[in-house]
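Researcher: Next entry in the queue.
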Amino acid sequence: MGKKVFLKISILLFFFTFLFLGSGASAVCPGGTICIDNPLEADTIEELIENIIDFIVVIAIALAPLMALVGAFYILTSGGEPKRVQTGKDIILYTFVGLLIVFLAKGIINAIRFVLGG
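Model: Structure for this entry, 118 residues:
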């Protein structure tokens, strides 16, 4: 059996498994209809935007130290080459500027909510 045939059969089995067995996210609602749980866990656009921003904040907090380490690695391995040292400094600077922007975005949303009384 070739790789392409095996891949096609695997994909079909995967989709048919979810089609016939379900993903476990559905339930039977009153009246016999099928209900699907809300995967976004947000009932309003405001909650959805807040969830997205919270996700971005978590990702930024996780990536900022890694990017700072990458910038430090560039500086340490530059061997005195000015262009590589500047690249490392730029990576570190842009990392902290990006992190500041993410935190300000979260703060601005909270400030607007406070001003509007929400």
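Model: The chain has two domains: 3-36, 45-116.
Researcher: Noted, moving on.
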